[in-house]
Amino acid sequence: MLKFTHLRGKLYHLVSKQRSLVLLSTIGCGIATSLLCTALPAQTTQPSTTATDAEMGWEFLGSRDLNQTEVTEIEYHGNCPGKDTPSTEAKFTSSKTPPAPGRRVTVRNVTRGLASDPYPYTDREYDKGRSSESTQMIFGTRHNGKHLIVLQGENSFEYDIRQGNQVIDSGTFTATINLNQDARERKAILSTNKVCMNSQVALNLCADIRNRMELKCPDGKVIESKLEPNISEISTLIANQSSKSMTFTLNGQIERLSPGESRMVTGTSLSLSFLPCQSCGQLRTMSLQPGKRYQFKKSLYIGGQIDLGDYPNTSL
């Protein structure tokens, strides 16, 4: 019995010792693993530069964002209704293939909904700075030689960059052109100015000056016009600024004007005949322009003779 008890004690001591060794081994491996993990630096993935990182597309005047802008359309109501949709200025840019001497860029708008024969396009110089020469965009559906046509919202574009006749880069991009709408009242403005009843006669030579009252819109459209006095006959002035009395015929009727005297006559077809001098044997006949000012005066070229000529109004 004593031998059996002694043997069991030895076995218990041996098992305990083995358990301690296993525990120490486990702890040691954990510490070693921790030290190993600490010694090895963590591997990080460095970002790579790809073609998608390149800045490409439209720079819009007044917008900080590439390929995005807003256009405000104003709709007017009142007695001068209408719409005002301004164009927007844009320049093509590409950080992948920047401008250089001899380069040009063609940009086509291939958005669904646009006429495709041809697609709206623009061909611009691309030879200096950071972008192309500017182009003006407007809303529409068909190619326009003056503007690049776009649709409201997102637009799809294709581009070709050429060095001489060789295409050195091409691709696609999208740009968004949003439309804001604003409603405003627009009223006509009343203006009054002096005009000659005969528009072919200068105002300082006009014998029939009227007041023209117009209701005019800010865009220049006249919605109402009225002349005062509102009579259809045109008056022509004949004055005698010579030192002699003048006898003449006007449309076959004999008329007479003393020095300093003047007379208004009406009609659109006026024929006047007079003798330039008492010894002159031949009448001088003239067709008068309706609405004009005329005067008899001493000739500047032939002594003793009278001429009939323009009579400027020095008060205008």
Question: What would you say this structure looks like, in words?
Answer:
The chain has 316 residues and is mainly beta. It is 12% helix and 45% strand. It contains one helix and 21 strands. It is elongated and about 100 Å long. It starts with a helix and ends in a 6-residue tail after the last strand. Mean pLDDT is 85; it is low at 1-52.
Q: Based on CA inertia axes, which overall geometry fits?
A: elongated
Q: Total number of β-strand segments?
A: 21
Computed Rg: 48 Å
- Compute the average pLDDT: 85
Approximate strand percentage: 35-45%
Number of helices: 1
Oligomer: single chain
Described by strand count, sense and barrel closure, the largest sheet is:
6 strands, mixed
Low-confidence stretches: 1-52
Structural classification: mainly beta
Approximate helicity band:
10-25%
Order of helices and strands: HEEEEEEEEEEEEEEEEEEEEE
What is the spatial order of strands in the main beta sheet? 3-2-10-9-5-6
Alpha-carbon distance between the two ends: 152 Å
Summarize the entry for a quick read:
With 316 residues, this protein is mainly beta. 12% of the residues lie in helices and 45% in strands.
